[in-house]
């Protein structure tokens, strides 16, 4: 690196007054009049540079030895003044020529390279920016060394990943090059990153790794605008610089992260907005959508995912389907040579987190529900949930002479016939089958409309007459007809496990009745998934089908796993509730769609601890259950994600490091297309994420 820098800097600069013009012209004029100048010390081995006189905005601390050298050399000013006039003129010409070249280089880097160089940047700033882009760490005092990622000889291939690569930090945001004269903008979480953008205030956070095992560290309070010390953070010794009278931590501007070059190709899809098709089954904004799809295609996104809403397509009468808007959308996607993932959405949209439109169930179904509300899930208090149909009517002919399962099958079969050409051409690559609220295979145990708030345990949803009929039958077969009831001590939507007699440690959930009830409750969920997926496999023969599971991570560390139990997953600490689901999916050749549960976005760690949540533990339990039966895993992000921290977390889940079997997800769907994603900064990060998903090598965009 020193050799390269010598080539850029050139030979040691002349010690005369005219050479100081390259930094600040006003200071140069003073130097010519007074004939005085501070002489630079050796900043790097093998490179001697001139140090400009300090100003109020650059208050560097000089070592005593350097000050002594300056004082010693200042006494030899007479020798400098004796130089011939011709030599001084030649020096001036050389410096003017050099500065002109430097100005053109800086202008080109600013305009075409997205380098955030200061107005009066010098060659040191350029070298530092280029070094950081090449993967080197450059500290504010000029100390330069290779990052850990460069020290790994096998970086870049999945086969070459060693144990050291698993320790690489992947959840960091490298800041722009040469910002604040080489001072890093720190390591910021999603919330802090956005806050920093809004306020323009530097917000450092601790680095998760040490630059060296022997480097001493200290703690420093960051001073806010009002003079208040806001936070005490670890500080690497010798990396502090004073800027605008504030102490700012000078941390490395590039942290090593996993290199995904050469890793398996994972297709990336983008979920289209919920309201891309309006209630008349027309494209809401075809021109705007086409522009966005072209932009996605330009960064090699593989395709898009779209909900095919039951409440829109079969809105007015049974078996009268209107898919005109979807026809136009699919044609648009095919012309752009993208692929499609389609969701059979048999639930309503609206009332849940992230829903920005309202799409109810078909009108004719709502009419049946007004006369027979028992077709909807019901809680212990008798409150109905019209978000989707109760699984109790899967085999009950209450929908104008058809069962719920028959209605679903007719809908899927007509879709397959109408869009046959898209299936035959491989444009439609996957069909996700809606199996419950939000399209997920679960009970609607946590409805916001009924007052549920995180981290409530939710309530059992088995009190419509059809579910109770099934419960009575199961109790009679067991020989205990008095068990044909739901728990009466399971609390309410916002209860916590220890507040209930059913879910507390040693509670009734682990007694004879509790085991019977939970086994029946979870078996109804399994039976519903089994019935619908068997018909989906028949309707979409030859096309991959998937079923979606949510990540219910709160109360995961409690013995009862209460929130999972009310959702239908019989997964207490002494039982694996996901193996049976994975086996059912494997029976039908279906893939599992599961949220990555990006635990970095769950910023409120106190709330996580209070709720005994364990997102990471849940993720790995579900993934292992699926991998044990060799079913593919598709995924999507559970939360809004636009920064590198979130993308790195997703990448680590999609492509687990050092997996002995080389397992990875089959596809990833980004949730979802929006104007915010299309903002330049966010889209650049997304493009980088797509490349890494595809196993391509990337150069960090300097943003």
The CATH C-level class name of the domain at 268-694 = Alpha Beta
Percentage of β-strand residues: 5-15%
Low-confidence stretches: 1-81, 148-253
Fold-level CATH name of the domain at 268-694: TIM Barrel
CATH homology group of the domain at 268-694: Glycosidases
Content-based structural category: alpha/beta
Measured as a percent range, the helix fraction is 25-40%
Based on DSSP secondary structure assignment, what is the total number of beta strands? 18
What strand order characterises the main sheet?
9-10-11-14-15-16-17-18
Task: Give the overall silhouette.
Answer: globular
Please report the number of helical segments: 22
Radius of gyration: 32 Å
CATH architecture annotation name of the domain at 268-694: Alpha-Beta Barrel
Our measurement of the CA-to-CA distance between the termini, rounded to an integer number of angstroms, reads 24 Å
Mean pLDDT: 77
Major sheet description = 8 strands, parallel, barrel
Give the tags.
18 strands; globular; GH; disordered N terminus; two-stranded antiparallel sheet; TIM Barrel; 35% helix; alpha/beta; carbohydrate metabolism; Glyco_hydro_14B_pln; 703 residues; eight-stranded parallel barrel
What does this protein structure show overall?
This protein has an 8-stranded parallel barrel with strand order 9-10-11-14-15-16-17-18, surrounded by 4 helices. A two-stranded antiparallel sheet has the order 1-2. A two-stranded antiparallel ribbon has the order 3-4. Residues 1-81 and 148-253 have low confidence and may be disordered. The chain is of the alpha/beta class. 35% of the residues lie in helices and 12% in strands. It has 22 helices and 18 strands. Among the domains are: 93-135, no CATH class; 268-694, TIM Barrel.
């Amino acid at each position: 690196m020193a050799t390269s820098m010598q080539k850029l800097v050139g030979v040691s600069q002349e010690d005369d007054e005219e050479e100081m013009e390259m930094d600040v012209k006003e200071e140069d004029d003073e130097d010519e009049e007074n004939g005085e100048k501070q002489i630079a010390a050796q900043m790097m081995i093998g490179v001697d540079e001139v140090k400009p006189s300090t100003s109020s905005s650059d208050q560097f601390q000089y070592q005593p030895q350097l000050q002594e050298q300056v004082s010693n050399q200042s006494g030899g000013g007479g020798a400098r003044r004796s130089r011939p006039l011709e030599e001084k003129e030649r020096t001036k010409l050389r410096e003017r020529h050099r500065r002109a070249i430097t100005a053109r280089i800086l202008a080109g880097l600013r305009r075409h390279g997205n380098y955030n160089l200061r107005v009066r940047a010098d060659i040191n700033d350029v070298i530092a920016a280029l070094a950081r882009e090449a993967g080197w760490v450059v500290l504010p005092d000029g100390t330069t060394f290779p990052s850990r990622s460069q020290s790994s000889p096998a970086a870049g291939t999945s086969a070459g990943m060693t144990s050291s690569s698993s320790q690489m930090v992947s959840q960091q945001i490298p800041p722009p090059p040469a910002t604040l004269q080489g001072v890093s903008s720190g390591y910021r979480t999603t919330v802090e990153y956005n806050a920093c953008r809004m306020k323009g205030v530097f917000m450092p956070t601790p680095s998760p790794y040490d630059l060296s095992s022997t480097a001493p560290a200290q703690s420093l309070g960051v001073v806010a605008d009002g003079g208040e010390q806001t936070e005490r953070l670890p500080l690497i010794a010798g990396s502090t610089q004073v800027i605008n009278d504030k102490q700012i931590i000078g941390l490395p501007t590039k942290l090593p992260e996993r290199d995904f070059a050469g890793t398996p190709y994972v297709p990336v899809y983008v979920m289209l907005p919920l309201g891309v098709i309006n209630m008349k089954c027309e494209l809401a904004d075809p021109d705007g959508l086409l522009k966005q799809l072209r932009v996605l295609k330009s960064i090699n996104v593989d395709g898009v995912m779209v909900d095919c809403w039951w409440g829109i397509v079969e809105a007015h009468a049974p078996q009268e389907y209107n898919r005109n808007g979807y026809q136009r959308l699919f044609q648009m996607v095919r012309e752009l040579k993208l692929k499609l993932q389609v969701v059979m959405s048999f639930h309503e949209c609206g009332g849940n987190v992230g829903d920005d439109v309202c799409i109810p169930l078909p009108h004719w179904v709502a009419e049946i529900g007004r006369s027979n509300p028992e077709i909807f899930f019901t809680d212990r208090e008798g409150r109905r949930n019209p978000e989707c149909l109760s699984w109790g009517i899967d085999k009950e002919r209450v929908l104008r002479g058809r069962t719920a399962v028959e209605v679903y099958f007719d809908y899927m079969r007509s879709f397959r016939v109408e869009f046959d050409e898209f299936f035959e051409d491989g444009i439609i690559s996957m069909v996700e089958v809606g199996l419950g609220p939000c399209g997920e295979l679960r009970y609607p145990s946590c409805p916001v409309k009924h007052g549920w708030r995180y981290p409530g345990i939710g309530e059992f949803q088995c009190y419509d007459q059809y579910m109770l009929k099934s419960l009575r039958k199961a109790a009679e077969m067991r020989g205990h007809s008095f068990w044909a009831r739901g728990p009466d001590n399971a609390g309410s939507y916002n209860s916590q496990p220890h507040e209930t007699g059913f879910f507390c440690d040693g509670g009734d959930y682990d007694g004879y009745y509790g085991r019977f009830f939970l086994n029946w409750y979870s078996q109804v969920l399994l039976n519903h998934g089994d019935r619908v997926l068997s018909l989906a496999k028949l309707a979409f023969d030859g096309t991959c089908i998937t079923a979606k599971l949510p990540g219910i991570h709160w109360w995961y560390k409690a013995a009862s796993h209460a929130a999972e139990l009310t959702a239908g997953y019989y997964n207490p600490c002494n039982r694996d509730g996901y193996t049976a689901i994975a086996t059912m999916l494997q029976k039908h050749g279906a893939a599992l769609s599961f949220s990555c549960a990006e635990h970095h976005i769950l910023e409120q760690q106190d709330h996580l601890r209070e709720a005994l949540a364990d997102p990471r533990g849940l993720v790995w339990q579900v993934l292992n259950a699926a991998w044990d039966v060799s079913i593919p895993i598709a995924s999507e992000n559970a939360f809004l994600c636009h920064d590198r921290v979130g993308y790195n977390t997703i990448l680590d889940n999609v492509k687990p490091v050092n997996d002995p079997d080389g397992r990875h997800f089959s596809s990833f769907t980004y949730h979802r297309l929006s104007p915010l994603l299309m903002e330049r900064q966010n889209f650049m990060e997304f493009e980088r994420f797509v490349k890494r998903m595809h196993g391509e090598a990337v150069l960090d965009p300097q943003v």
